[in-house]
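[audit] Reproducing an earlier prediction to check determinism. Same input, same settings, fresh worker. If the C-alpha cells differ from the archived copy the diff job will pick it up downstream; this log only records the rerun itself.
[audit] input (520 residues):
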Amino acid sequence: MSRKERHPWIKIKKYPHIGFQLKEENIPELETYIMDDKNIAKHSFLPFLHRTVFQRKFRANDKGVKNKCKKRKRVKHKPKSREIFFASHLDSQIYSYYSYLLSDKYEKFIKNKPFNKSVVAYRKIEIEGQKNKNKCNIDFALEAFSFIKENNDKELTVIVADITKFFDSLDRKILKRKWSEVWNNSNTLEKDHYNVYKSLTNIRYVNEDILFRKYKSDIWVKTKAENNPYKTKFKQKPIKHKRFLKDHNAVAYCTKKEFLQNSISLVSKSSKTKGIPQGTALSATLANIYMLDFDQEIHNYINNINGFYQRYSDDLILIVPRKQQKQAIKTLRDLVSDENKVNLEIHPDKTKVYHFHKEQGQFVGFEVNENTGTKKAKTLEYLGFEYNGKRALIKTAGYSKFNRSMKKSFKRATSLAINASTTPNEIYKNSLYKRFTYKGARRRQIYNKNTKTTRYDWGNYLSYVEKANVTFKGFNGGNHIKRQSRKVWSRFYDLMRISLQKIEKSKQSYLKIVSEHIKK
C-alpha cells in the first residue's frame, strides 16, 4: 500500500519498543482493526516506555555583568527535565486515529468561535494565499510582533506566561467532561473512547533503561538478508549501550510474548491523580480540548480591551494597553486557576512582563519587573524569537544549541575515525556538511528505487533560519535573521580543521608504531 492510499492518521514509527515495528503489508488489516470501535473498547494497551529527557539551560544574568567580549555572562541553571512516554507501535496508531477523529470534531466545534485564530498549536492553519501550506511558530510569532508594531503609537504591555507542568497537571475530570462534550455533546464517553481515556489516565509504564538492561544481550535488530541485499531479516544481538541502538538498527527490545512471559514484573503504575502522558499522538489534541473554556473567556476579555491573545500549547501571550496591565495579569491567573474550568497554575518564574512605547522618537521594548516596573536588560522572547521594537531575531539560545550539536558531532566523528579498527580513517565530511551547512539546507523529496517509496528531507537548522528570514524579511526591512548565521561557516571550518589535525596526528602516531614494530 502506498502512502497516498493510507489513511492520513497512519504514521509508522521506528523506535524500538515491546514488539516489532509495523510492516507496510499489514496496514490494511491494521486499519480495519483500529477503525472498529468494538475492538478498541476491549483492546488491551501495552505499558508505555518511560524516558526522562534533560535539557541544558543557560540564562543571561540579570545584573548585566559582562565578560571580556563585552557580552553578558550566561549562568548555567538546573537542567530542565521532561517525562516522555512512548506507546507501543499498535497503541500509537490507535492514539493517532483517535487524535484524528477528535481533531476534526474540535475544528468544527471552534470554527465559528471568535477565538478560533488565537489557538495555534497542534493545528493545521493554512497560510493565506498559499494552498496546502500551513503556518508554524515563525508565522505565529510574526502575528504577535506585527500587532505590537501596528500599535506603536500606544503604550503597550506584553505578558508572556507559561503554565506550570501543563500535561502533568491536567485535571482528569475536566478532561473527561470536555472530551465527551466535543465528541458527542454529552456527559459520558462511549466505550471505545473511555478505554482510550483509561489508558491515558491509569498510566502503566516500564522504565526504558531497566528494559534495556534486561534485554541488552538479545536486542532485536534489522539486517540485510545474506543472499539478497534488497531483503531484510530480523535477528537478536547484544548491544553494549542504549545510545548504540540506532547505529545497530534496533527494532525491538523484546517480542510481546517474551515481555508478557518474563518481564511483567517490570511494569509500574503511576500514582499521580492528575495529568496525561506527554508524547502520545493524542496528548496534544486533548490539551487543546481541555483549554476550550479558558480560551473563550480570556479571548473575550482581551478583545473587549482591544488587545491581542494567542496560545501555543502552554505558552501564552497577551498584548494589552498599559493601563490594563494589572487587571490583565489578575484575570489571566484567576482564569487559569479556576477549579471548574482549568484548575492549573501559571509558572511564577516564567511570567514575563514587557513594556513597549516610544522613547526619544524610537519605538522600543524591554522587560520590566512586574511589581516595581524596573527596567531589565532583556527584550521580548516568544516562540524562539526576540523582538525589541525595531526588529525580530532568532533567540541566541537556538544558535547555542545548534553549535553544541555541531561540536558534539565533530567530536564523535573524530573519535570514530581515530578508533577505527585499522589505520585512523577520514571523517564522514558529507554527513557533517549536510547537517551543519547550507549544503544540506535545501528541502526536497527523495525517492527510494528499492522500496519504491518517497521521503521528505526537511533539511537542517539552517533551513529553519532561511524560512524565518524569508517570513520576517518584510517586517524587519532586510535580511537581519540571515545575518545571524554568518559565523556558522567559520565555526564549522574551525571544527573541521581541528578534527583533521587530530586524525592526522593519530595517523602519524599509528604509522610510527607500525614502523618501529617492523624494524624489530
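[audit] rerun output stored. Observation attached for the diff report: The chain has three domains: 10-61+71-116+172-273, 123-164+286-390, 398-519.
[audit] end
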